[in-house]
Write the C-alpha cells for this entry.
Amino acid sequence: MTFVKMNNPPHLELDVSIAKFKVIKNGNSNRKFIWLHGDEKTAKMALEYHIKRYPGTAYLIENDSREINIKNGIIDPNRIFSKAGAKKNLNKYNPYWSRNKKKTVLDSISSARTILFKELFSDQESIVISLHNNYKGYNIRSEINNSDEISIKKNQNPRDFFLCTNENDYNILAKSPFNAVLQKSTPSTDDGSLSWAALGKKTRYINIETRLGWLSVQKKMLKYLEENIP
Ligand SMILES: [Zn+2]
C-alpha cells in the first residue's frame, strides 16, 4: 500500500475547465471517491484520512464554497451531471445572463461532464463513493419520497446515512449500525446530481452523508463501507 503524505502529497490535478480536482491515487482498487462541495470540510478531512489508509482514487474539488464560480456567476457542482439539471441550476443562480452566455457556459459544463463521466464511469466494475455533509434540516426523511427502501436505526442521528443505488449494496448497508436508503429507480425529473448519473450509467454509487463537524462518524461509515462492500 502506498501512503500519501498529506502536507505535500504527490497527486495529480484534473482540470475540467469549470473546476479543478486534486486526484490522489492509492494503489489499485474499484473505489472512486469524490468530494464535490467545497464548504463541506468534514467530508474532505474524512476522505483525506481514508485515502491514506485504503486503496482507491480520490477526487477532491479545489474550492472553498458549495457553488463554483463560473464567468462571474455560480453553479452547484452536484447539478452538472445532466444537461437538464445544469440548465435549471444555471438559470436559478444566474437569471439575468443572456441566452448566448448561458449557451457558452452550458457547453463548457458539457465538456466537463464528459471528462468526469470518463473518469468515474468508464469502468463498469467501479463503485463511486461520494462524501457530503449537511447543515440543519436535511436528513434521511427528506429522501423517503425518492427511495425504494429505507432503514432507519433508532440510535442513529437521521442526518447521518448511506444513500446507495445498488440493491446488493443496500442489503449490506441496511444491516450495518448506520441508516441507509436505496434509490434504484430513475427519477421523473433528473436534477443533475451525481447519484442519478451513476444510476443511468449502471455504476454502483454510495453517498456517505453526515452532519458537518461529525468527522468520527463519517470516518466510521467509510471504514464500514470499506470492510463490508465488495
Ligand atoms: Zn454536499
Remarks:
- Residues 12-228 form a domain with the Aminopeptidase fold (CATH 3.40.630).
